[in-house]
Design a protein that fits this description.
It is built from 11 helices and 11 strands. It is an alpha+beta fold and 339 residues long. It has one domain: Beta-lactamase (3-Layer(aba) Sandwich), CATH 3.40.710. The longest helix is centred in the last third of the chain and has 19 residues. The radius of gyration is 19 Å and the shape is globular.
Length: 339
């Protein structure tokens, strides 16, 4: 069987949800999060981890398998491929670099990466701010036929070359269009600005100072035995070793670390006042993640001041996302009911 592609790292699939089905599903509330997880496993999810942070207290839940073949139960402290949730960390890093004067949101792509001028349409008009907010119109490299067979260790610009000389999806800043190429190029921009890997900057400026010691930029940095296995419906092999190394989708973390990061992103712990203002102008305060075998949701429920992280080690097509959202919605309703 062909290697399952990263056609998602589509992680903004909320717009494809089957809202009416989800609303009906909310009527079938379980009495507890534990019961809801049992229901998820019965429905075909391989493994589930839930993290809730509320009123200064944190709770972890898990069900199913960490490794299905070896019959190892799900571990709430396991590392997980968080896919496009990684973009929150990239945007936070850029916010700090802009605040320090090392980058400008109004700099154009042509100015920041001169080699792409004439190869990416409108590169002289696309700004860093547009790329951060997915308003650039740059096509997404994950949809290119050659991406499936690309080398995960190739340079960022070699991957970006998959969309060179293609027509833009739309004119700069005319609308929103999610594209992983934006954050691929932002990774390159940060590396050039810093003159060292932006992964190190994220570690030293965002993770270590905030005690986030179970978050990593790349799968290669961790003990693979600590990572939850990932599965795709209808395809038996474990997808844990399927490598994705591009910026904005490569990170690995525990649910607790992701939850703490999101809390710090929202409550001002992560930034000074100017950095917070910059971040608020460029990106969102929640994200989803979708890669082969790994699906995740990281959001804040303002009604009950709760950070809720959901990891599920099962993937399928876009319609499968409605099942994931259904479970996430019911878990939030259980939390609200308890309050």
């Amino acid at each position: 069987m062909k290697r399952i592609t990263n056609v998602s790292l589509l992680f903004g699939l909320a717009s494809l949800m089957l809202f009416s089905a989800c609303q009906k599903d909310l009527l079938l509330l379980e009495k507890s999060i534990e019961k809801e997880l049992e229901r998820g496993i019965e429905s075909g999810f391989d493994g589930i981890i839930i993290y809730v942070n509320q009123a200064g207290k944190s709770s972890l839940y898990s069900a199913g398998w960490k490794n299905r073949a070896q019959q190892i139960p799900a571990d709430p402290h396991a590392l997980f491929k968080i896919a496009s949730i990684s973009k929150l960390y990239e945007a936070a890093a850029v916010s700090k670099l802009v605040a320090s004067g090392q980058l400008s949101l109004e700099s154009t792509l042509s100015e920041l990466i001169p080699e792409v001028d004439g190869k990416i349409e409108n590169a002289d008009k696309i700004t860093l701010k547009m790329m951060l907010g997915h308003r650039s119109g740059i096509p997404d490299f994950i949809y290119q036929p050659d991406f499936e067979n690309s080398d995960p260790n190739e340079s960022y610009l070699t991957t970006a070359a998959l969309i060179f000389n293609q027509s833009a999806d739309f004119k700069p800043d005319k609308k929103y269009g999610y594209s992983n190429t934006n954050y691929l190029l932002i990774g390159e921009i940060m590396d050039r600005t810093l003159d060292y890997p932006h992964h190190d900057y994220i570690k030293n400026e965002l993770l270590i100072p905030n005690g986030l010691t179970n978050t990593y930029s790349l799968y290669s940095e961790v003990d693979s035995n600590e990572v939850m296995s990932g599965y795709y419906k209808g395809y038996d092999p474990d997808l844990k070793s399927d490598l994705y190394t591009r910026p904005g989708g490569s990170m690995v973390a525990t649910a607790e670390d992701v939850g703490q990061f999101l809390r710090y992103l929202i409550d001002g712990t992560l930034f000074n006042e100017n950095e917070q203002k910059i971040y608020s102008s460029i990106y969102e305060y929640e994200h989803t993640g979708w890669s082969p075998g790994y699906t995740s949701i990281a959001r804040y429920n303002s009604d009950v001041d709760a950070i809720v992280i959901q990891f599920v080690s099962t993937g399928h097509n876009s319609l499968f996302w409605s099942e994931l959202e259904g479970m996430y919605g019911r878990i939030n309703k259980i939390i609200e009911k308890e309050n």
